[in-house]
Design a protein that fits this description.
The protein has eight helices and eight strands; from the N terminus they run αααααβββββααβββα. It starts with a helix and ends in a 5-residue tail after the last helix. It is an alpha+beta fold. Helices cover about 20% and strands about 10% of the residues. The protein has a four-stranded mixed sheet. Strands 1-2 form a two-stranded antiparallel sheet. A hairpin with a 7-residue loop joins strand 7 and strand 8.
């Protein structure tokens, strides 16, 4: 009974590794079913395979010289048939191509061409063609410059022109000098009782010229400092336009130049008051 069971298992096949009982197909008797197997033309030749070729014999220099067709006339298209060394006679009567005799040829050497005529080099009158002193003498302008300690250090940095605006609205420049637009300016200085010249200071119905304002700000005899701080700088509109006794305005200055002047004054006001 045992023998009968063994024969049946052999006929049916016992499961082995990789889950198959088929024969393993190996190269060179079988080829892979891919591009490499399609390109490979070897089908069952056991004498062909890796390390079966005489590469050193068929790829040698001797084999290539004997079997590779070459041109006897030259190495390029339209090669010349003339000899490489012309048959010129030497001093002794022999030909130049007869190099075995060690003859002295009459051909010029490489150094016998282009005899260079050296021209005299012109010397500079001054070294490095520059007559300026190496260490120039300092001028008086550089000697009397202010020292680093003479500048102000405790000042506000990154000063910019200020604008007044709102969200979604136009931004207006915060002018340092307000324009007083009237037909006839009748302001008189409250201190010297004279009409002010140029820009002046005004607070409500009182005005102070620049000289009186700077004098009282320095000494403070007549007006207290809190009162002088309330004065704002004012400019008459006579330099910008004329009214001629009416409310109309006749322009005397280009609006672009006027705008540039206001921006410039607002900038310098950050440094000079």
């Amino acid at each position: 009974m045992a023998l009968l069971l063994e024969d049946e298992t052999k006929k049916k096949g016992v499961p082995i590794s990789f889950g198959t009982t088929e024969d393993r197909k190996l190269f060179p008797h079988h080829c892979a079913f891919n591009r490499l197997g399609n390109l490979d033309g070897i089908r069952g030749d056991t004498h062909l395979g890796p390390d079966k070729y005489n590469v050193d014999k068929f790829n040698s220099i001797d084999y290539n010289i004997k079997t590779k067709p070459t041109n006897k006339l030259g190495y390029s298209l339209g090669a010349r048939t003339a000899s490489r060394i012309p048959n010129l006679k030497c001093k002794n009567g022999y030909y130049a191509h007869d190099l075995s005799r060690g003859l002295e040829l009459t051909f010029p050497g490489p150094t016998s061409y282009q005899n260079e005529e050296k021209k005299p080099v012109k010397k500079n009158k001054e070294s490095f063609n520059n007559s300026a002193p190496r260490f120039p003498v300092e001028s008086k302008a550089t000697l009397y410059q202010p020292a680093p300690g003479t500048y102000e250090h405790d000042v506000r940095r990154f000063r910019r022109v200020e604008f007044a605006g709102s969200f979604g609205g136009k931004q207006a420049l915060k002018e340092t000098i307000s324009i007083k637009c009237v037909q006839n300016n009748e302001d008189i200085c409250d201190s010297c009782k004279r009409p002010p010249i140029g820009d002046y200071f005004c607070y409500r119905n009182r005005a102070l010229c620049r000289n009186c304002h700077s004098f009282h700000s320095a000494y403070g005899e007549k007006y207290p400092p809190s009162y002088l701080q309330a004065f704002k700088k004012v400019r008459d509109c006579a330099e910008i336009h004329h009214h001629e006794g009416t409310s109309a305005k006749i322009k005397l200055k280009d609006p672009k130049l006027e705008r540039k002047q206001r921006y410039r004054e607002a900038y310098f006001n950050q440094y000079f008051h």
